[in-house]
Amino acid sequence: MTLYPRLAAAGLMLAAVLAGCSEPAQKAETSAPAPAPAVAANPDVHAFRIGQLEAVALKDGDIVMPNDGKASPWSNTEEVAALAGAVDAADGKIHLSVQPLLVRDGDRVVLIDTGAGGQMGTQNKLQASLRTAGVDPAQVTDILISHAHGDHVGGLMANGALAFPNAVIHVSIPEWTAMQAYAPQADMVRALTPRVRPFAPGAQVTPSIRAVSLDGHTPGHTGYEITSGDARLLYIGDALHSSIISVQRPDWTNVWDDDNAAAVATRQALLERGASRNLLIYGVHFPFPGLGRFQRRDDGFIWVPETPAQP
Q: Which Gene3D superfamilies does the record match to this protein (predicted)?
């Protein structure tokens, strides 16, 4: 989550983007899910389906931060501590999972984000998780990047070489422009450039996956809507970091966001739209495996996981 300078103004708000989705205005996703693809049982791998598409949540590790207003992006430490479940009772710290998403889209093997590559105190599990899911890194055909913070692009490189040598790397034009201007990522940018295919915000990136602008976090922060028949899932990147803090208090700003006003508006619109449409959400930093839905509760929202959180 290393920040780079603000290089572009936030674009259109999420509500306007999602208003263009093909789903009927009042239709909830009620169709029965297809059986999960066969993957060996493992606490770091969770297989499921999006309609007829095979998908796998891949654990990369955990970011663990003291609730001290320094390592944590939320400076209102007393309010964070008072929010039930926001701080782990065992160690008094904030825990955020890191789990890229694998999707088999026809003959494409798509990986959305690449984890931290061992940065930020994480465990660098992605490659092992990927192999447990039956995929060698050389088989990945497409990598979709939500944004260029270290816990999302850190796994692109390994020992100075491309970790996924045959993959085309898709990143939004505003985010790629920001990466190219950020000196600490210069070596990575040089290595990636031959494989990068920048796309315009809102583009159809693969046959079943469309980019969705989620403004505020970085100049070109992007979510991904994955669709198969009547089923759809929205990968939200870092629009919301915590399944408790970000969901229950979307108005709280954090220092990881490039544009706080846009980020707050995106969170609020995403929660409203997700709850009203009963959208299946993939929270890359929510408790593993990160699958669930937003529900209204009193005057706000809560996160309801599809499966129990795994260690």
A: Ribonuclease Z/Hydroxyacylglutathione hydrolase-like
Percent composition of the chain: helix, strand, coil (DSSP 3-state, to 5): 25, 30, 50
Report the CATH number that the domain containing residue 166 is assigned in CATH: 3.60.15.10
Nearest to 117 by CA among 178, 48, 61, 46: 61
Residue listed under structure tokens 């899910």: 33
Quickly count helices (H) and strands (E) in the chain.
8, 18
Would you say 289 and 57 are in contact if contact means Cβ atoms under 8 Å apart? yes
Q: 85 near 93, Cβ under 8 Å?
A: no
Total domain count for the chain?
1
pLDDT digits (tens, 9 = 90+) for 249-283: 999 999 999 999 999 999 999 999 999 999 999 99
Domain residues for the domain of 135 are 36-305
Helices (H), 91-241: 126-132, 150-153, 173-181, 186-192
Over the chain, what is the mean pLDDT? Answer: 90
- The alpha carbons of the chain give a radius of gyration, in whole angstroms, of 18
